[in-house]
## 1
Amino acid sequence: MPKALVTGGAGFIGSHVVDRLLEDGYEVTVLDNLSDGTLDNLVHLKNDKRFLFVEGDLRDPDVVSRLVKDVDAVFHLAAHAKMRVSLGDHRVDLEHNIIGTLNVLEAMAANNVHDLIFASSSAIYGEATVVPTPEEYIGIQTSLYGAAKLASEGYAEAFVQFAPIKFWAYRFGTILGERCRRGAIWDFEHKLIKNPKELEILGDGKQSKDYLYVKDCAEGILLGYKKSSASINIFNLGLQEQTTVDELASIVIDEMGLANVKRKYTGGPRGWIGDNPVVYLQVEKIKNLGWKPKMSPKDTIRLTAKWTVKDIEKRAHRAEHSETLHS
Ligand SMILES: NC(=O)c1ccc[n+]([C@@H]2O[C@H](COP(=O)([O-])OP(=O)(O)OC[C@H]3O[C@@H](n4cnc5c(N)ncnc54)[C@H](O)[C@@H]3O)[C@@H](O)[C@H]2O)c1
């Protein structure tokens, strides 16, 4: 039975990669410090003997080395992904994302583990002047998060030159689906629960993004890994379709059963520094390997909006219940 280590496996995308690996017959260990992830994402696996969860931090080289030791592949998804936090804390991406990745690479090289599959980001293209943006495009960095993803890719590519490591990097657009507890849908629903009459939208609402369903994303990661065998394999993962934040807001409002919601824009083409107004990825490279995403962006947004409503209710109920138990 092949063995995989999934860093960040308690997170949104990582937990779906874990599910997909188990479906494929892998034994899976997850390393996650639960800073942003939650065991709720893995609770359905608690009786699966092929699955092990380890709470630990990527920044600790001893933990990483111990877990990397006897696996066949490392799916490295753990990262600090909150762009706006790194505007104030300039070291957080360096420490979690670059040094964290270096710890993985050193552990793999020392333990003769070959396959590194990495969650990169379309953030590395910055405000791309070529759209749809191909993998060859080199952009100016607009966020420390993007800069750290690019540096991590660079470190991995350099390790490939002197260690027996093969590297797969996937540059995602915006991934949505069950267990997504960050981003526009999460933000909008929380705001609309507080005030169903008005919605504050960061930016001008015209930002257009490439939304991809998380299960199509996990499928793409596994398919690219199985079907490409160069020493360095880099793929965009998106749908090559654009949806504006305003269109997304309309679906969320509709899904929450609201009407006549006044939209208040903070203005400007970006929601925050580092919010690239247009993300539109060329995805022929992965499609040419046979990847066929099943879900459209609109259906993905609707499904995520529906799931989020239920998740917020579930959490509120749990919080209320635990308050009652403690009072
Ligand atoms: N969600 C997206 O749309 C998107 C887009 C582009 C790239 N990505 C990348 O995909 C990966 C997964 O993203 P996600 O949306 O699932 O985020 P997430 O925050 O849900 O998952 C990241 C996980 O990493 C864990 N983690 C963070 N720092 C850690 C550390 N130092 N040690 C151990 N664990 C740590 C967190 O607890 C969390 O469970 C990340 O690398 C992210 O940068 C995500």
## 2
Amino acid sequence: MNPFVYQQLPVRIRFGEGAVKQLSEEAGLAGLRRVLVLCTPEQKSQAQMAADLLGDRFDAIFDGAAMHVPSTVVAEAATLAARRGIDGIVAIGGGSTLGLAKALALKEGYPIIAVPTTYAGSEMTTIYGITEDGRKKTGRDKRVLPQTVIYDPVLTETLPLEMSVTSGLNAVAHAVEALYAPDTNPIVVLMAQEAIRAMASGLKGLGTSPTARSECLYAAWLAGAALGTTTMGLHHRICHVLGGKLNLPHAAMHAVVLPYVLRYNAAHIAPTLNRISVALGVGLVTDVPHELRSLGISLGIPNSLSALGMGPERIDEITEELLESGAYVNPAPLQRPGLQKLLLSALHGDW
Ligand SMILES: NC(=O)c1ccc[n+]([C@@H]2O[C@H](COP(=O)([O-])OP(=O)(O)OC[C@H]3O[C@@H](n4cnc5c(N)ncnc54)[C@H](O)[C@@H]3O)[C@@H](O)[C@H]2O)c1
């Protein structure tokens, strides 16, 4: 076995249907007495439920979390937090809400209890991002890692089907890139492979299997943990550039782009393709990228970037930005014609 480094991140996990009912107990264990609950405007009722569960430990709700963590929203929430003298945060929602919690933790060091309601996986990473003047600045900092994560599959039942599938494939993208990351290791491989298996099984069972939501959330945890301890490659880079420049919906964009990047890298990642193939439950097939694409299509999600609102105008500019940001490792070398072909195919949904 090759030598490796595995950085265990210190997060307490509570998983299970109805686990959110232990929110006050978890806040007590974390030493919190004046809690600010964060959510988006759409999830105010879930935030109110969290507030009720916190009882005496609850102080205020801020319901202005927004995609890409605008700095103006961070400033507004920080002002409220300071005025109320809070000592911790409960973030109930997807990656956008947790992103706001992380920005506040970075500024003021508040401990976070995360209650994820999508499969984005941000709760298991030290990665943060804040958008100012149209640019999203990202970084890694241990201060933004939640102290506790409560995974309650019941809370994901309200996530619309299409968003559930795209969010699930966003998690699969973390796992796929972790499998071939330059700093992958046997522990990450275990987590990533199991994440792909459980997510594929859970997504196929949505609406019919009573255990589907649990499988998806369990997979999201594992995929987030794999993302949190490895370095991502071309797929995450493309989505970062597309998200920043075109503001495409995060999870759906990941779901469309993933098979195309896998195909771009295919000649360099034979062991990874075998692992994905086994995890998807399709045996050892020859065209794994196609198999992954078929999974998304069979689950009814958009299969082109144009369906998400992207046009062809900025392909050259995006290609240049991908080539310029050479400070990341990817299995296949980055070459202009190949990248342009990848982006154009993903744009039109050509295969
Ligand atoms: N830092 C990291 O490690 C990391 C990892 C993944 C994603 N992200 C970030 O997270 C953001 C995307 O997060 P996302 O994909 O979870 O989407 P999101 O948080 O933007 O949520 C999308 C919409 O779904 C709603 N929603 C969420 N859960 C729901 C539920 N259970 N029922 C009903 N509605 C629900 C939200 O309120 C929102 O309106 C992006 O900004 C991305 O950059 C960060």
